[in-house]
């Protein structure tokens, strides 16, 4: 290993696992002609702005001024698509194409154009010379379309700008689409990415009865931008073993000679499709699911297949130089311009297009009809989308709440509702998570949908394993795969929720970024349907990761999300159980968003009954009068919070302040919908400055206890009246260790004592009393810390701390302390 | 597949690929005793705060109030480590242990303690009863240490809090450490992550002559938190094929019976070590590198091995319930407390510890001595670190700069210097990148160090492939693997640089987060050496991704980094070539940071000669007097920039303003070191408010053109005097399409015209002239856009725009327009 190995060359007569020559002479001739038409379109897109049929001799004025676009994988992708067309017609298949290789859009766009779909959705791109000219020019041209299978591409739900997600997207699309086959081209470049490398294991989570099939075609193009690919430079034995190891049955198709390659691909694809249908039939007729060794194809062909092999003494076809624009200097090099022209003409455009530039009739017949055309597949446009049947979340409310006294678990409460969401939407909703659903206290969903598991079983699985061949919960320890499945699932029109620990959601920052970009761009595409929102529930939050320590403390995903377009992102931090229910109902009802909900999974004090919770979540931000001191008067200080754990500490700070300075007027504000803080000019949820001031005041100190990094609040509010002077935000500041919750809060200055001290330090009129009260609060803090460190847990009164103010049904009592029981801050 | 498969049970007599019983009766007895001592320590850490030798009957008062820590993988890890000890002594091996399975620290800490290392570095944790008590109590206890192999853990350079990087870290550590073997436990949970799944391919990048070896032990524990693992539930045939496919030679060791398992592991490890030594000998004696099928071990043993099999009617050992604290209710359940006590005693602590709690002498002798003790391996503490020999970057300067007129490529210039950094540090510096080094214009480094490639070769590789068995550039299309290699390389004391496209660096957000946390925590550990900085160079920046479109536009990595502790992160945005050189020299000289440098790879206008560049970079932020209008007078407006492309536009805006309103005093400010914007209270690089005001003013409008999302500047400056009123930041706002650079800038309001209009709109005293000038600027903008859209490229005068002011060597001339040539904005 590691030396010259000529068996890895992609050139020559086809070598293939499956033998046979299923194509008649005529089929072979037509298939090849269709491919030539496709490839003519591909290089046309890359080079031409005029003279699309080469009716005139090619001259520099016909070329785009800046040549862009990628040629490397086009032939292999077009080749594969075209051979699938034959089988779609033969077996009436429902096929979605997922284009994994980077920048492979020309091949996809060409198919869409040849199938007539492109002209159907873009009326100005007609099937004639003028349309062809526009079709060519718009590609990788300012104001036009990109070199990936972007949202503008009919039949695409996978852009592939960032590599690595073709397989997981494909699986997401076929879950609960039992008749769908996702023909998935996988680049050998993208195969080196981590997300792709593990996504091959998705077969252990696919049920052959209720789900469709993914048929991967690993495209061994051989090269990336400037390097060979790993998988193209290992032995046949290793490569075959790898995919057997991943659980697939690999079929090889290798070579460059078209006559034999067409026959080999036709035979191999048919074998693969037949096996898929056979496995599905077996499982469906017996009702017994199993994990087949699903077929996959390894297509080894030259990079830039059909380009000139050598240009100016350097290899082009079959080498990395064919990655992007294959001959870049055609405008300045007349010899290369002639070479390009002869390359164009080698596809014999006169034979495949009529003189008006329309694909000739005998080739048009090769494509399937209507929605069977791959580029018209409705699944790629979420066409079957149905709204979820959501049970009335009010019925799951935590009842009889005494605010700040009732102690309950919001997450398990919400899980009861989620269980019934699962139960009521058994083919259109799935819950995804990297092995944390149980840990995140959502385990009650298993009553309606178990964890899908097509791996082998052991007898002990009966002991609470909750595994089943058919289920609604998808758990694999790969955030990438879970997110990729979910993206594929929602983009194909179904609904889902990803639950994950907060600290590790950064693993999929880039995937969420890309999904946001897809949704935003899709908004601009007239024919695109809205897709269900992608929902992310973050638990195991920073403030309860005291015991797991520093590596488990990172609430910064919100910063990443908040950089995305306000049109597509929403962030919610419900403070308690009923607000969590209300928020979850809202996000699962929505479309075209990425919703992020942050909620701790531990027991918490409860504050709002259901009607109050709905009202609060509807407003997104509000004054909690019952938690304020003399709310009808002008406040001396505003205590605000956003996030569940920090709300508890902020309320405790109000209590401390009231205890020690009873005459202080305190306003308490809670934020559920983070974007309320932003200006309404910048985000549709944003408050106007007037609304903002009415809640937060212009000129009073605001002590804002925030769940995440404090700078995020500053970033959202920097222009708010008085914010620079008066807004003091506390949040996580990367001060972590193995701690108790109290100690973690103290380190980061989000604890009740620090907040209370912070408040009095901002009130100059108290200055004469400040030092005494400060010291008292400090003493309390130290005593609590000491207890915590001694025993390894926070003192009882910190953990079960209760709000000393009671709230009457009639309204606000303000400082009624009658129900103050067991509170910890009394001296 | 998919049904009960009893061959996958981890219980029973050992089954192993390698046969033989290399251990004598006595060795077997002692090895088992040493393991018992280890496991006693493990459960001691999880449960006990007192009575460490169980001299008293176990009672609730001896238990920690909150039980934390993970038991699941401890036995397998201790078992493996102990068997390696024998071979270290036998062959005088240099072994580093990388602990991949999540929360496996007890096993590692126990070894360190038994080897005496722990007491050497932590003097209060003595090898006696009192020390043992402290050792137990501190684990997962507030103020103590975590349940991962954190920086506090001797012998560790891999924390494993976030899973997936054990293999890439191990490879990073053994590169250029030819005698090192990284014994790497890989969890079957972490094996499901994408980063881990692709990192197995690292063997294609390891040279058996110049690098050491990684010996992976895949620990088939069988379960994650609450699920079986994928790899433990596929057939033996698939599992074996998978690792053959990955290029390894897998050896199985499976079972639970200790007598046979000890012999099997001893024989198997010895076989693996012998093969490693044999391959190395073969390559080194012939001087001919090759890629062996490196050995790896698959250890299938019960999760929580040696815990009780069943507790209260549920499986514990060999099931997911053994993941964390195995019997959680011992404080409240007397029966379980007795069970725990008998479990402790089953390890026969009296036999393995003397009455003072010290490991008995005959067992102490099993461990290697001095630095051969795995937990004392100096590599894990970067002990061999040497500073880089850096060539004088001044000699690589772009010379004879006419500011704003000279057009040159800063990246290729810097690449010349980088080439010599490579050449001068052939065993201590590597350049890493995901197939983008050439594309990023750094290809000249190949002259001194080619791309390492141990995959197979084809003849065409001679045509500019730049591949070699031995080299200094590491390219695999996996940002995760590149980053993991780099982390391992720097944590083991060597130097490196990762180059990557800006948009896709989000892929490793979480890895960089974790590395920052490691460095920050290591600062608090007295015995930890500083490590070379981890350097990231981002090119293919957002403003030049106009043609690749929306998916390739995301400059938000800076937001992620800026959330990390100011002690460890640095961000630089050099505006031109000489500043890039100066910055790169600085970052490669530094320690203990994560340095992020953002610089475009395209040709750019140059501004500063080398002395000016050094002065500017040293200050980090400064007024460019030569680019200001009447800089000695009070400015009417401040135009500021941070980032190379946006600096060009900001300077052009100055020129436009000066052209149209000659009497306007304009101050131009450039920021290289982003943290200068932050308060010095929050970051060591931050300016004081006074310094900030001296540069930016308190009360003049500041039009700040920023490379990244504008909110980041607001986040850093929200407290600066006057910032809320006067600071107007332009930056990327998620407005992308297929564009020209100009059009992309216009969409995001970072173009020269918008900036100039923005400025005049902030100058009320110009109001009477505003509408005319505004319209003139708008007309210019529209004309330029029209040209761009027509031709697909920006007009010549936009692309080669030159600064109309000349700078004399003597100093500032301010508005000398003598050299204004070919500028585009004249009407």
Automatic annotation (TrEMBL), chains A, B:
<dbReference type="GO" id="GO:0016832">
    <property type="term" value="F:aldehyde-lyase activity"/>
</dbReference>
<keyword id="KW-0786">Thiamine pyrophosphate</keyword>
<dbReference type="Pfam" id="PF09364">
    <property type="entry name" value="XFP_N"/>
</dbReference>
<dbReference type="InterPro" id="IPR023962">
    <property type="entry name" value="Phosphoketolase"/>
</dbReference>
<dbReference type="InterPro" id="IPR018969">
    <property type="entry name" value="Xul5P/Fru6P_PKetolase_C"/>
</dbReference>
<dbReference type="Pfam" id="PF09363">
    <property type="entry name" value="XFP_C"/>
</dbReference>
<keyword id="KW-0456">Lyase</keyword>
<dbReference type="InterPro" id="IPR009014">
    <property type="entry name" value="Transketo_C/PFOR_II"/>
</dbReference>
<dbReference type="InterPro" id="IPR019790">
    <property type="entry name" value="Xul5P/Fru6P_PKetolase_CS"/>
</dbReference>
<dbReference type="Pfam" id="PF03894">
    <property type="entry name" value="XFP"/>
</dbReference>
<protein>
    <submittedName>
        <fullName>Phosphoketolase 1</fullName>
    </submittedName>
</protein>
<comment type="similarity">
    <text>Belongs to the XFP family.</text>
</comment>
<dbReference type="InterPro" id="IPR029061">
    <property type="entry name" value="THDP-binding"/>
</dbReference>
<dbReference type="InterPro" id="IPR019789">
    <property type="entry name" value="Xul5P/Fru6P_PKetolase_ThDP_BS"/>
</dbReference>
<dbReference type="InterPro" id="IPR018970">
    <property type="entry name" value="Xul5P/Fru6P_PKetolase_N"/>
</dbReference>
<feature type="domain" description="Xylulose 5-phosphate/Fructose 6-phosphate phosphoketolase N-terminal">
    <location>
        <begin position="23"/>
        <end position="382"/>
    </location>
</feature>
<dbReference type="InterPro" id="IPR005593">
    <property type="entry name" value="Xul5P/Fru6P_PKetolase"/>
</dbReference>
<feature type="domain" description="Xylulose 5-phosphate/Fructose 6-phosphate phosphoketolase C-terminal">
    <location>
        <begin position="601"/>
        <end position="803"/>
    </location>
</feature>
<dbReference type="GO" id="GO:0005975">
    <property type="term" value="P:carbohydrate metabolic process"/>
</dbReference>
